[in-house]
Amino acid sequence: MWRYGVSVLKPNNCYFQCKRNFFSFSKSNLKKSPINNSSNSLTIMTTITESDVGILCSISNLPGFRGILKQRYSDFIVNEVDNEGNVVHLTSLDAPPEAFEEGETKTSDQLNKSYASEIEKFRSLACETDVDSLETLINKITSGSEEDISPIVLSPDSDKSHRTAMHNFFKENLRFLVTDTVDGPDSSSKCIRVRLNSGNNKRGGNSNKRKRGDKPYDSRGSSHWPEHLGKFLRFHLFKENKDTQEALGLIGKMLGIQTRSFGFAGTKDKRSVSTQRVTVFKQHASRLAALNERLIGIKVGDFCYVKEDLLLGQLLGNRFTITLRGVVADSEDTIKASAESLGRHGFINYFGLQRFGSGSVPTHHIGATLLRGEWKAAASIILDPREGDILFYICYFILFWQSVFNMLDYLKAREYYKETGDIDGTLRQLPRHLVAERAMLQCLKKCPGNYLQALKAIPRTLRMMYVHSYQSYLWNHAASVRVQKYGSNEVALGDLVYIKGDDAEKTEVVPSEHEDDSFEDADDCSQLDEISGKDLPLKKNNLVKVITAADISAGNYTIEDAVLPMPGSRIIYPTNEVADVYHDMAKKDGISLTESVHSVKEFSITSMTGSYRRVFQKPIDFQWELLSYTDGNIALSETDLDKIAKTKPVNLVKEEHPTNGTESEEPFDHPDELESFDDDKKFSIDNDEVEVSREVDPLQVHSAPDSNSQEPQKALKLAFTLPASCYATMAIRELLKTSTSVAFHKTLN
């Protein structure tokens, strides 16, 4: 039975968690230990810890307890919440009747009719040679010929208006044919190419592929589109153990379109079961629905046609259903009290560990180097081998059963480049999913020594992640100092707050949460766990002011109004001791927050607008339930697909294995959802069966040590909604008082 949270005042307490996780590698063993500089032992930090990035405090002083996060993928369910506040669910896998569009029927009907009148109309526009070519093409199509139907190229034409009239003729009269413009025999002329609109069949091969430059959509197969339909098909994407880009990359491969044809509001965690909205440009629902028989770990459904595509940030947040298994506490009362406290008081709105990457060099370190304008140093951090890399990957492999072959390829390529400088040889060895490294090397091949240009060659979403993570690093430390010095119960003199009431007329407008110049481009995919894109405005027109003594006396503001800035040129800082944190930490890193040492705007904090972020966040519509279970292989939460399967059998529902944290996760500097699927990612397709998962080693599907035990175990099931910029793992941290790192929870398994 669900229990519901209520709102009361928060206690003024602070919990510090400053332990660092290190692993010591020696001849005899590999074990956890503090840093050891003795001659017979080498020690490295395998991953960053929460304290490294400023995650130090909690609100409640209640004791923590043991709980395993994401033992199974269905223990972490994420459902997107759209801009109208609706929770997005997968409810149907079927294409609606209108999805089998009349356009296809019309095309079929057109192929069975005579085209004498249309050819006569065409005669008034074209020369006899072109008329004969068109008539031959139409006859070949209508005869049902099984041979490949090649396109025809009409006579050269330098008159653009006449070419436009020709294009319009085909659109209006011969809609089963599509046209485009190709280069003519000389530089001053163009030719019109005419070919069969292949639609859903495979005839025509690759002849209908077009390069669209920087245009946002891939229009292949979409030239014939019913006028009564919106140009975008919106559907709900359900996925398990797949990140958003991976899932869309696979669907795009199967449809024969590029990933850029898809639009979505935000990325969702790979290690979860999630449902979100996606749009795709000019595709029929029937085509996507047919993929459900072949997709593994992915389903699509709830189709409808809309006029606009989805853009990053077009969501209110996410609804989470999280199950913590193997819960062990001093008493059941401790668990209940902690759950009630989370619902009433919330948590500190830290940026989670996902923001800072999972490699041996955190992303905020790279961001600091970029902000200092050290282009060659930043390039070296990304490309060169690092001290301790091999031990880092040995530890990762032993703990998580990671694919050692991928790691060795990665390390070998780094070492090879460092020793030889051979870019072509390095690119041949470098795994294709390492987007940043490959982009930089390809640029350096064209522009040797131009490290700034090489850094700019990294996809914008990824390169901006480095700078944003440094901003987040400063914000986290400032939030911890705010809680340490002033508590979490009430606003303090000098705090910043979102203003309300009459104060709005007296205060200048400053940007809200990431109402930033880079907003549209900055899909910060480092938030793999539960957030979408980057920090998004909760209210676009929020105003910010400094708390005065009069405000405190009047009691107009509560701790829920408190915000802290993300550094930029248009923000203000608190007027209390918290402001010093930003400047002091940046100064230690050789960075000024008020002036730039270089002129590259995208790598300069002074060229960024800046933003504000709430210091404390309460879970919305919070519910919790304490469960008892004996079989760790039984799901404790129903997914959307489970609900569909109750009423209608679903083919190819893959059996869920305990994650044990062993699914493929590349421990590199950037998250693996930024892999490029346009040209590089390869999938094996055999007998129409598409396999998207790496082959699983038998060791990887073992349950947690006690998962098959018949001894009753406790589980804490939580359900709540968070705004798009918040991390659910930080809410879980408030409960458990332990690290939320993937590494830590894998050790619990």
Automatic annotation (TrEMBL):
<dbReference type="InterPro" id="IPR020103">
    <property type="entry name" value="PsdUridine_synth_cat_dom_sf"/>
</dbReference>
<feature type="compositionally biased region" description="Basic and acidic residues">
    <location>
        <begin position="667"/>
        <end position="680"/>
    </location>
</feature>
<feature type="region of interest" description="Disordered">
    <location>
        <begin position="182"/>
        <end position="223"/>
    </location>
</feature>
<dbReference type="InterPro" id="IPR001656">
    <property type="entry name" value="PsdUridine_synth_TruD"/>
</dbReference>
<feature type="compositionally biased region" description="Low complexity">
    <location>
        <begin position="197"/>
        <end position="207"/>
    </location>
</feature>
<dbReference type="GO" id="GO:0005634">
    <property type="term" value="C:nucleus"/>
</dbReference>
<dbReference type="Pfam" id="PF01142">
    <property type="entry name" value="TruD"/>
</dbReference>
<dbReference type="GO" id="GO:0009982">
    <property type="term" value="F:pseudouridine synthase activity"/>
</dbReference>
<feature type="domain" description="TRUD">
    <location>
        <begin position="346"/>
        <end position="618"/>
    </location>
</feature>
<dbReference type="InterPro" id="IPR011760">
    <property type="entry name" value="PsdUridine_synth_TruD_insert"/>
</dbReference>
<dbReference type="GO" id="GO:0003723">
    <property type="term" value="F:RNA binding"/>
</dbReference>
<dbReference type="InterPro" id="IPR042214">
    <property type="entry name" value="TruD_catalytic"/>
</dbReference>
<comment type="similarity">
    <text>Belongs to the pseudouridine synthase TruD family.</text>
</comment>
<protein>
    <recommendedName>
        <fullName>TRUD domain-containing protein</fullName>
    </recommendedName>
</protein>
<feature type="region of interest" description="Disordered">
    <location>
        <begin position="649"/>
        <end position="680"/>
    </location>
</feature>
<dbReference type="GO" id="GO:0001522">
    <property type="term" value="P:pseudouridine synthesis"/>
</dbReference>
<keyword id="KW-0413">Isomerase</keyword>
